[in-house]
Amino acid sequence: MAAVASVLAAPLTSTDRLEALLLVARSTKPRGAAAVNLIHQAVSAPGVFFFGELFDVAGVAELSMSSEIHLVAGYQLLCLFSYGTYTDYVHLNRSGCVPELSRDELQKLRQLTLLSLASQHKALSYALLHKAVGIPPDNSRELEDLIIETIYAGLISGKLNELQSRFEIHHVQGRDVPHPSLMSSPALSALSSLSSSTPQLDQIVASLQNWQSCTVSVLQSLQSRMDETRHSAADSALQHQQHRQALLHNLIESQHLLESQQQQQQPKKGKSAANPMDIDDVDNPWAAPKKKATVAGARGSKRSRA
């Protein structure tokens, strides 16, 4: 019961929270304005920071090819929260490509911007962060609150170094990575931060290819070890069987030899053992003369009586 309670009490992840919206989208199949409304619900939902699965919704994908401005703006908003930063928002908002964000949506975009910067650096100075997230340089308290809030959301871990005015990153969750088929779309081309992260994407691809080659090498080594073990086991089983057959053969031969010896030691049929009374007492040489003397004495006494 305690284990079940701990599972039930576990906090929902961003994927879990987005899944609820995806279930509604799969059942209602939104199109047009309904798809835009789905995007607004996702970007404003608390605890939802990753939106890549929304691009798989058919109605959302159709927005990129729409000729209506507000529908295209909805798709651009999704691209902004999926791959963009606060600087991209400032540029797109000035050009009228995306609507004005609410305070909570703006705070979420700043947190996502922090993730993008933290994935490229091990330490971020306060000066760089102030400029990147649009917080005035004289308001370090608001910047630190943003970092602490991002840490509590489970998106990043690190240490605030107030002495050196920097944030030292220990771990950060990666953001969504656009599919190569989307890279040529106008919505993604409008994100200046995404073009600067292209080398990072190439590095990710190179790392994945390196991981793949290492994995293949390890699998081949394991397969070789398994084959050697299998052959060794087969040889051991064959040797064990041969040894067992040799022992069985020796046992049968020993049994036959023992039976043959027992048959040779048994007396032949029709001949009984000699009578002990018929055997001369060779060990007592005085037995026969003594018997004769007794007989002679008996005869002599008989004559004297006559």
From TrEMBL:
UniProt-listed InterPro entries: COPS7/eIF3m, PCI_dom
Coiled coil: none
Keywords: Signalosome
GO cellular component term, pick one: COP9 signalosome
Region (Disordered): 258-306
Domain PCI as annotated: residue spans: 1-174
Similarity comment text for this entry: Belongs to the CSN7/EIF3M family. CSN7 subfamily.
Protein name: PCI domain-containing protein
